[in-house]
Amino acid sequence: MNENRRRFLTLVGASSVGWLAGCGGDDVGEDESPNPPQQITTLTPGAESGTQDFGESVALSSDSSTIVVSDSRREYDTGAAYVFERSGDDWRSQQRLIPADAERGSNVAESLAISDDGRTVVVGAPSIGGADETPTERNGSAYVFERSDGRWDRQAKLTAEADSEDLFGISTAISGDSSTLLIADPGRNADAGVAYVFEQSNESWNRRATLTADDGDDQDRFGTGLSISEDGSTIVIGAPGVESPDVTGTGAAYVFGKIDREWSQQTKLVADENSVGRHGSAVAISSDGRTVIVGADHVGDSREGIAGFVSVFEQSDEEWNQTATFAPEADGNGSIGSLTVSDDGGTIALGAPDGSPGETSGSAFLFEQSEREWRQQATVTPQDSDTQTIFGWSVAVSGDGTTTLVGAPNGSPPERGGSGEVYVFQ
Fold first, then answer.
1. Is the distance from CB of 47 to CB of 101 less than 8 angstroms?
2. Which end of the chain, N or C, is surrounded by fewer C-beta atoms within 10 Å?
3. Which residues, 6+ apart, have CB-to-CB distance to 259 below 8 Å?
């Protein structure tokens, strides 16, 4: 996967950096916890050859017993997903997931998703042969793997329409109960974007809906960010390319709900008028579907600090209201590239892969809500911090918010420099 594809996915590397005006104040507390999470282990691909971007995507089961890590550039961009299972206080490599039809350039595992119980994993492969099954038509696919008797087996291959060079599978999501999958293609229809809903019935997956924004337009990149509630009834989809009448690239997120088995758009979420910066580059939703977190990877000024911001929206009496807007407080420059939220919506992890303490070494930030106020609990960096590791490219948290994963695709395990690492904090 080349750098342009990677930046299309997460929209990291904004053209400006800065602290969002008013991000402190009443929306976020100032003091970090005196007992921040500690790094407890580091996951690596081992000594095998061919790994290049291990940690590009990460996924974590609700109880933190199962970890899945991607490397879509392994073996000439064939790609693979790595499953780790907890054993005592550590996680051990269990199995590598590679579809049988994967080949060079397939970019398997460019996106990942995992069910709450850790028994179902979705692996996106946006450059593999899709609906027509021909190697020249790389319109993308997604694969569902399930664990049974300690072994992972492929259950399904999901595809969309056979349009060459689309990006089906570049972003994926699964409901906590594993009943519903969401696979996006933000490159479809002149980058307007589309997302597909698949539901499981009698051990097979069937496409139930095709979602687009009611006001969708070219270059919106609808589907860049995806998230689904635990029961699969509420979906949030980011579209960072959406433009307002007066400002380019403000971005938006869209909430869809399912009523009587039919999906419809409930609302469009936009940040307040002072918060400009590709809103919707990353999204997350709480387990009950009533709290939505929307990330923007930069702001429209050039002040020093971490670029971008997070908006929190909550549903009350069928209405969605923006209840908080904040950004990390940190030295140096960088931009928000990834985010995730705990099941109850009370813990948020953000990754800033090109931020301090060193050039593109990156950081991650943990925020917690207490008495309706969001507080920056901790700034997380690896013990072996080095330059250009892009620590924070991917993040994941457990259901209770006590375990955090942070991916560093350019990290350097001793046995193979620069192939990537994933750090586990508790």
1. no
2. C
3. none
First vs last Cα of the chain: how many Å apart?
31
The radius of gyration of the chain from alpha carbons, rounded to an integer in Å, stands at 19
Model pLDDT, residue 36: 85
Round to whole Å and give the CA distance between 357 and 332: 7
- Residues 192 and 184: their CA atoms lie apart, in Å, by 11
**How confident is the model over 264-277, as pLDDT tens digits?**
999 999 987 555 57
Percentage of the chain modeled with pLDDT above 90: 59
Q: How many CB atoms lie within 10 A of CB 257?
A: 17
Picking from 4, 16, 11, the residue whose alpha carbon sits closest to that of residue 294 is 11
Residue spans of the domains in the chain: they are 9-425
* Type of residue numbered 156: A
Domain 9-425: give its CATH code.
Answer: 2.130.10.130
The closest alpha carbon to 10, from 149, 111, 155, 115, belongs to 111
Q: Which residues partner with 257 through β-bridges? A: 234, 264
* 43 Rama sector, left if φ>0, alpha if ψ -120 to 50, beta otherwise: beta
Q: What is the pLDDT, as a whole number, of residue 372?
A: 85
DSSP labels for 68-109? EEEETTHHHHTBEEEEEEEETTEEEEEEEE--TT--TT--BT
Rounded to 5°, the CA angle 309-314-315 comes to: 150
Q: Which of 168, 154, 137, 139 is nearest to 100 (CA)?
A: 154
The CA-CA-CA angle for residues 66, 199, 214, to 5°, reads 110
**What is residue 46's predicted lDDT score, i.e. its pLDDT?**
77
- Three-state DSSP at 266 gives strand
* C-alpha closest to that of 61 among 45, 83, 80: 83
> pLDDT confidence of 329, banded at 50, 70, 90?
confident
Residue written as token pair 């990677």: 6
According to the model, what pLDDT value does residue 379 have?
92
Say how far residue 270 (Cα) sits from the centre of its chain: 19
Residue spans of alpha helices (H) in 114-240: 188-191
What is the distance of C-alpha 373 from the center of its chain? Answer: 24
pTM value? 0.89
The pLDDT score that the predictor gives to residue 307 is: 63
What pLDDT, on the 0 to 100 scale, is given for residue 167? 82
Residue-level pLDDT at 289: 98
